[in-house]
Amino acid sequence: MEIAHKLNKINQRIYQAATKAGRDPRKVKLLAVSKTIPAAVLLEAYKAGQQDFAENRVQEWLNKVPELPADCYWHIIGRLQTNKVKYLDQRVSLIHSLDRLALLKRLEEHGARRDLVWPVLVQVNIARDDAKTGLLREEVADFLIEALNYPHIRVNGLMTIGLFEADIQETRGFFRDLRRLRDDLKKEFPKEFTLNELSMGMSQDFEIAIEEGATIVRVGREIFGER
Ligand SMILES: *Cc1c(COP(=O)(O)O)cnc(C)c1O
Questions:
Q1: CA geometry: angle 41, 121, 88, nearest 5 deg
Q2: Which residue in 90, 108, 124, 151 has the most C-beta neighbors within 10 A?
Q3: What confidence tens digit (pLDDT) does each residue in 139-177 have?
Q4: pLDDT tens digits for range 10-61
Q5: Which of 193, 165, 158 lies closest to 179 in space, CA to CA?
Q6: Distance, CA of 62 to CA of 227 (rounded, Å)
Q7: How many whole angstroms from 149 Cα to the centroid of ligand 1?
Q8: Closest atom, ligand 1, to C-alpha of 227
Q9: d(Cα 72, Cα 22) in Å, to the nearest integer?
Q10: From the alpha carbon of 96, which atom of ligand 1 is closest?
Q11: Domain ranges, ordered by start, for the chain
């Protein structure tokens, strides 16, 4: 199947999942997770109307950016090494993987130097999976309080990765937990943060994530095929 057709299918599924949940489908953003996929294929997706792309390696992102039109939106997902932060610039739309204090500090330094404010999501290890990074849910409030000291960081919401081996009910439970955590934090910090974004759901579970309130879904394989 060609990319345009696959994108069309996914967008239809997003529309249906949102409508089923009584949500406005326009409030759900599809990220094309393009890690390991050649720039020429991204361009095909772009021509089919896709503008948001997500990469997990800074070097690969740097190589692809010049190959695509300037009106693409680039998202950084996956563990971000502090020594790679210096390569980030205003072409980054959103960093989804703020998961530790050292990274917060490094982003602040780099943002101050470049006079940029980084829009970020705090990654939460909602499933308490030892194999994943991210804050535990009980750590997030203190982390947000700490982030208030960093004027070049703007926390816009939360992100999580489900458990690959979880069944549908478990997966739904994790997404629901992330949403509840976000709702609690919104109440706790009504003036300090907007926290409007919930980045959750991938190829295998994005419809469940939308039903549970995802505003951003990150889909790779269903668009580009197996990596
Ligand atoms: C690779 C990746 C995705 C996309 O996963 P697919 O199964 O290809 O849809 C989403 N989020 C993160 C953080 C990823 O690393």
A1: 60
A2: 124
A3: 999 999 999 999 999 999 999 998 888 899 999 999 999
A4: 999 999 999 999 999 999 999 999 999 999 999 999 999 999 999 999 999 9
A5: 158
A6: 20
A7: 31
A8: 8
A9: 29
A10: 13
A11: 2-224
Nearest atom, ligand 1, residue 202 CA = 9
Is the entire prediction scored with pTM above 0.90?
Answer: yes
Question: Ligand 1: distance of its center to the CA of 86 in Å?
Answer: 24
| Sign of the dihedral defined by the CA atoms of residues 80, 81, 85, 87, in that order | negative
pLDDT score for 85: 98
DSSP code for 86: G
Q: Whose CA is nearest to atom 7 of ligand 1?
A: 203
Task: Confirm if 176 and 185 have CB atoms less than 8 A apart.
Answer: no
Residue 64 host element (H or E): helix 58-64
Q: Is 222 helix (H, G, I), strand (E, B) or coil?
A: helix
Q: What residues are in contact with ligand 1 under a 6 Å CB criterion? A: 33, 35, 56, 77-78, 161, 202-203, 218-222
SS3 assignment, position 217: strand
What is the residue-wise DSSP string for 7-46? HHHHHHHHHHHHHHTT--GGG-EEEEE-TT--HHHHHHHH
* Record: fold of 2-224: TIM Barrel (3.20.20)
